[in-house]
Amino acid sequence: MTEIDRRPRIVIIGAGFGGLAAAKALKNAPVDVEIIDKRNYHLFQPLLYQVATADLSPADIAWPIRSIFSKQKNVTVTLSKVLDIDTERQVVLHENGESTYDHLIIANGSSHSYFGKDHWAANAPGLKRIVDATEVRRRVLMAFERAELCEDPEDQARELTFVIVGAGPTGVELAGSIAELAHVTLSEDFRRIDPDDARIILMEGGPRILSAFPEVLSAKAEESLRKLGVEVRTGVMVEQIEDDHVVAGGETIPASTAIWAAGVKIENLKQWLGCETDRIGRVPVQPDLRVPGLPSVSVIGDAAKVAWKDGMDVPGVAPAAKQEGKYVGRRIAAEARGEKAPAPFRYRHMGSLATIGRNSAIISFGKINLSGFVAWLFWGLIHIYFLIGVKRPIFVAMSWFSNYVFRSKGSRLITGMEALRAVRAHVPKRR
Amino acid sequence: MTEIDRRPRIVIIGAGFGGLAAAKALKNAPVDVEIIDKRNYHLFQPLLYQVATADLSPADIAWPIRSIFSKQKNVTVTLSKVLDIDTERQVVLHENGESTYDHLIIANGSSHSYFGKDHWAANAPGLKRIVDATEVRRRVLMAFERAELCEDPEDQARELTFVIVGAGPTGVELAGSIAELAHVTLSEDFRRIDPDDARIILMEGGPRILSAFPEVLSAKAEESLRKLGVEVRTGVMVEQIEDDHVVAGGETIPASTAIWAAGVKIENLKQWLGCETDRIGRVPVQPDLRVPGLPSVSVIGDAAKVAWKDGMDVPGVAPAAKQEGKYVGRRIAAEARGEKAPAPFRYRHMGSLATIGRNSAIISFGKINLSGFVAWLFWGLIHIYFLIGVKRPIFVAMSWFSNYVFRSKGSRLITGMEALRAVRAHVPKRR
Predict the structure, then answer these.
(1) Per residue in A345-364, pLDDT tens?
(2) Is the predicted ipTM greater than 0.90, yes or no?
(3) Together in a domain, A304 and A242
(4) Looking at the complex, does the CB of residue B111 fall below 8 Å from at least one CB of chain A?
(5) 3-class secondary structure for A274-298?
(6) Chain B closest CA to A369's CA: distance in Å?
(7) Cα distance from A396 to chain B (closest Cα, Å)?
(8) Interface contact A71, partner B, CB < 8 A
(9) In this complex, do A420 and B81 lie within 8 Å of one another by their Cβ atoms?
(10) Most C-beta atoms within 10 A of its C-beta, which of A334, A415, B191, B256?
(11) How many domains is chain B partitioned into structurally?
(12) Pick from A159, A198, A193: which is nearest to A177 by CA?
């Protein structure tokens, strides 16, 4: 901390779970905080797959950053995209100007990684942003619309085959949710096809799904998925993804819809900071979450490589990002007040959970493993609890409850005119 | 009706209020119904302005056509855009094929008319579709974001000036709603600007706002708007709309946001049917809503010019479209059953209503004129009642209630990357 008269300027890049937690932890500190994000909202990413499968609307899981901080007067929000960081001058360069910092907190999250096959992105969108979710929703719903207009059984089968690549929580939740969409929600909506004929194939390169969970829960989850009609294939590497087929393990599967849930990467940090990054672009940080050699820069959330235990890193999940944000915020607040620096960061693992459709979930919480309906209820409660941190959880709860009771999907809208062009491109003319 | 063995085929173009009512009236008739629409949802258009001002989400006011008819097995839904109609062969040509009809019901609604100045569309979007509403929302919210990034007071004033052209119900409701967004909802969200400084200007070419209402109610509405801080200008013709100013009545008003709520037109019908249309493209129909000379074609809703009383036409409002759809459905059902044709169509006017912000509305119902808070409550009840016809009105009611009580705008999301480009284009770099 330099001995100057003005209040220290804290710049936070990104308003995800980590960035928000850091800003909140600085609430009563004698500092000025600037949050820079390229979007005007905070996104509750763990529920994004439910937007993709039309269970929730974007507004159910996203909140304007400004309204989250309207009462916290030491926070300024700048809607802009970061272009570079000048660590010498301590300045963030962004599309709408420059922001000087005394402390910089980088919490810019991760994006999809196609393991070097970036051309797969067009045929297999991932699920990180709201536009991704509405795009996946559009593709899934349009596949049924195209199938309804097909004459040829082979064309219909191709339209009704959905391949999900990657069986982490997102892939598993997505597969379960698409299976329910096809086999329950849409079951009476079509006249020429039977949505029950839809095939949902979940591919995983590793030996089992949900590898971060105990083996017994992976097995339970796989059983639940099979009951919903999902074909689970483990130990299969995807070799090719085209717009009308996927090649995996030497087999060609005709499928007009593929969704990517396999890998993540962190962009830009090596270039911006001139520091070391790991294979996926994360910055290895010190125990106090600072970047080695750059004491005024901290990295948190998905973008940080933080040592945990048994040689493992802290996982890239929302609770970890929140804990790291809170820690860095408190550390900087203590410094600004001239107080003693807190002890090094320690991650407290809260457990893992994933849901499989309307009735089943799996939960690993310390020594407790739960699965089935009780776990599903618990999953819902946990998510409502976490949403309370932001706003209007009651609406999300009501949307779920209504979907559960009425089996309706109120958000099943295909917006934008691309819908039609997609039909035109794929379906042969009929008389 | 030809003397053939198969069931008559009824094709309906458009799933708005008229098209839905017609299909529902054919529920138990011995006919096959095909609804052709270029979108997969029915839109509750009277509340579209609330999506534009972030009170509601698109999914609150739109419902998948397929789910509305999932139980009515004589209805098929085709997602396709109509290209032409062959009235000789009785065939509708659309992007995904052809549909043969015995009876055709045209219910394709209206679009914006810029009175020949179509180049205004880019600078002053209208409000007919969901994409229009999210575009208007984006422009309004981005204007505040740009103002927050401005240094120059003149630039700030231009960004914070909103011009609404046309003071029918949509223009009035939009102006009231933007005024509340600026003066109430956003009041604490910014640090460098005061959203209270925003100017909302409502322009009307005619001598008074809401010309379809009794004069006393127009005056009440104008008073309510002024209380909300809206500048109302009547008898003013707009001469020019550019991206940074509007010229009206000889005066140049610097304003970076303009919204069009002035005129409608009906497209394509003259060309498709080879029949007469009026100045705005409507088809004058017979008392049984058939097109003169084309007994197998009926036109309903905004697209039909239907004589009412005192030389007036039936107004282009949702209840009129519903009544016409129901009438034509019943007429065709009677014919299919070999029953007597019903008496000619008679429009029952249910009254007019418009709301101005959170506390005020005006209602004209027969000889009853209501205004103020009681009218506002009545307005809410009426809309909830009409929504029951579709689905989940409880959610809309709760969204309203929550917005009312908490003054929150949960749907205040700027989606898509265009947001940023807009900032970049308009705002001078700052240090």
Answers:
(1) 999 988 888 888 777 888 88
(2) no
(3) no
(4) no
(5) CCCCCCCCCEECCCCCEECCEEEEE
(6) 36
(7) 11
(8) yes
(9) yes
(10) B256
(11) 2
(12) A198
